[in-house]
Write a structure and sequence with these properties.
The protein is of the alpha+beta class and 336 residues long. The protein folds into 3 domains: 99 residues, Alpha Horseshoe (Serine Threonine Protein Phosphatase 5, Tetratricopeptide repeat), CATH 1.25.40.10; 68 residues, Immunoglobulin-like (Sandwich), CATH 2.60.40; 88 residues. The chain is built from 9 helices and 9 strands. The strands form 3 sheets. It has a 4-stranded antiparallel β-sheet with strand order 3-2-5-7, with no helix packed on it. Strands 4-1-8 form a 3-stranded mixed β-sheet, with no helix packed on it. A two-stranded antiparallel sheet has the order 6-9. Helix 7 runs antiparallel to helix 9. The longest helix has 38 residues. The termini are far apart.
């Protein structure tokens, strides 16, 4: 019997406590409602004029200024009829996310007994649009991969997004940047269309790794410059001495036999020596140019790729001359 009475007493106390909490909540709500005074006559006039301005801008097709005017009026009045104008102007500008937020505000206004028909119509229009907008608004999913547990900062269209994993965005062009201390930031740009669901994955890499890669690539620059310098010098020297060797060979061809043997006692020894010397120098110069190209070009390519640029030009081995001072058939200088 005592246990039974104790249970009943406990239940009674809980009922009293619940009623007290409910009454306190009602009082708090009433106080909060009373704390928000009705707009003054001056504010009402400002809101009314803002609506007129919004209507005028809408007729002119200036929906951006119309939206500003309707928002100004809605901030004062906070009624379904001003909120639905914000919805309509936002839709004209393609601001689906903002339009949905305004729809939710319009639909959230409590229905009053005997309220005016425009209030009810605005609320019903907002409820209908909410279903349509949920299907039209693009969904964006962002994943950021980092080598550490650091929390990245994600910025979409210049505004920080937190949380960033899932968000709704308006159709159109968007820019996403992700960054974190000590890591190289990542960037992506894309376009969204209505109803699209897009996933973006950004990878943040250690800044030290990037610096090391740049330094590693940079160590080949001296070798590239040395090799290409040797190649250019060899081509220049070989071209000049080759031409001199050809001139000497032409002089000899006028008095010597077809088998390259020359009559004695004509004083042609110096010309023959000159032809052979220049031909040898030309061959050595072009061989040096080939070595320089073989060393310099790969070094240049590796160094440029380290900076994420493609090589723009190169140089092939030039023509070689034989011992008679004649150019080797099929040899050429190629620049690309």
């Amino acid at each position: 019997m005592v246990g039974s009475l104790s249970s009943w007493e406990y239940a009674r106390q809980m009922f009293v406590a619940c009623r007290f909490v409910a009454l306190a909540s009602l009082l708090i709500a009433s106080a909060a409602s009373a704390a928000e005074p009705e707009p003054s006559e001056r504010d009402r006039n400002i809101a009314r004029e803002s609506v007129y301005q919004g209507d005028d801008f809408t007729k002119r097709g200036d929906f951006k200024r119309a939206l500003e005017a309707y928002r100004r009026a809605n901030d004062i009045m906070q009624v379904p009829t001003t909120a639905i104008e914000v919805v309509r102007a936002s839709l004209k500008l393609g601001l689906l996310v903002e339009a949905l937020a305004a729809c939710e505000q319009t639909a959230a206004f409590p229905q009053q007994s005997g309220e005016r028909a425009p209030f009810t119509a605005a609320r019903n229009e907002a409820l209908k649009l909410m279903t349509e907008l949920h299907a039209r608004i693009p969904q964006l999913s962002i994943a950021v991969r980092t080598p550490t547990d650091v929390e990245p900062q994600v910025v979409v269209d210049g505004k920080a997004l937190q949380p960033y994993a899932q968000s709704t965005q308006n159709p159109g062009h968007h820019i996403v940047d992700a960054s974190a201390p000590g890591l190289v930031s990542a960037h992506d740009e894309f376009d969204l269309i209505e109803g699209q669901t897009k996933r973006v994955e950004l990878v943040l890499t250690p800044a030290v790794t990037a610096a090391a890669a740049t330094k590693s690539g940079g160590t080949y620059w001296p070798l590239a410059f040395s090799g290409l310098g040797l190649a250019l010098a060899g081509v220049a020297t070989g071209s000049v001495t080759g031409m001199l060797s050809l001139n000497a060979a032409n002089e000899l061809s006028q008095v010597c036999r077809p088998d390259a043997s020359c009559p004695p006692n004509l004083g042609l020894e110096s010309t023959i020596d000159r032809r052979n010397t220049f031909a040898t120098v030309a061959t050595i110069a072009f061989a040096a140019a080939g070595v320089g190209a073989v060393v310099g070009l790969p070094s240049l390519i590796v160094s440029v790729r380290a900076k994420k640029d493609a090589p723009r030009e190169g140089l092939a081995i030039g023509p070689l001359f034989d011992s008679a001072g004649k150019p080797v058939l099929g040899a050429s200088i190629t620049v690309w």
